[in-house]
Amino acid sequence: MALIHCDFFSEVLGLSCSMYVILPQSTHNQIGLTGAARDGKHPTLYLLHGMSDDHTIWVRRTSIERYVAPLGLAVVMPAVHRSFYTDMAHGLKYWTFISEELPAIARSFFPLSAAREDNFVAGLSMGGYGAFKLALRHPDRFAAAASLSGALDVAARAAAGTEEWRNIFGDPSRVRGSDDDLFALAERVAKSDGPKPLLYQCCGTEDFLYADNRRFMAHARELGLPLTYEEEPGSHEWGYWDLKIQRVLEWLPLRRDV
């Protein structure tokens, strides 16, 4: 595998940004690790961080490079600060950045596939919200999305009315039913004739976001969306996410012929 720390300029944000990128490499002589790579452009997992983290966190807290080595899977890990993957009401356009600019820039730098069947997204906490938001707003671009302990009910969270939530989403009363509301997006995808991404969702039963996750799970199942849901004892911490990202990689509809 190649681990690349990539600094680049975002026209959308008007500032310099960073991402970590893991690229597949076929290897046979590394001690304790055998890497695989497909011919041509690589299938890609966009792996999103939580609210207090950055683009380095998945590499620092898990063995993600080792986990993906035999899969021939590229991983793109961008930094979006505390934006909630949203075009902020009082801030920068991080939704446009993550959904439009970042994939185009990453594909211009690296041999990443643009085919829907080769594109996946996952994240934890705030990143779980971002992952489902990307897949539900663009089901034509992503074959699968995974949320680990996701902050999935932002309308309920925004109702707290703190300054930070207002800076992100604006008037909290307008979040429910908007393009930032995963519950509304799920209904839209369920009612459409278009493709429906596979969804994976997990949350620990001691997590402060457990109730939010149960609400979204019930909603998605009522709509008939293709959701795999798992819960077990666990809280909002990296021991849990390190285990569950391995489960996500097993679950992904990824071609295994490498």
From TrEMBL:
InterPro entries: AB_hydrolase_fold (IPR029058), Esterase-like (IPR000801), Mycobacterial_A85_antigen (IPR050583). One of its GO terms (molecular function) is acyltransferase activity, transferring groups other than amino-acyl groups. It comes from the Bacteria. Pfam families: Esterase. Gene3D superfamilies: alpha/beta hydrolase. This is Esterase.
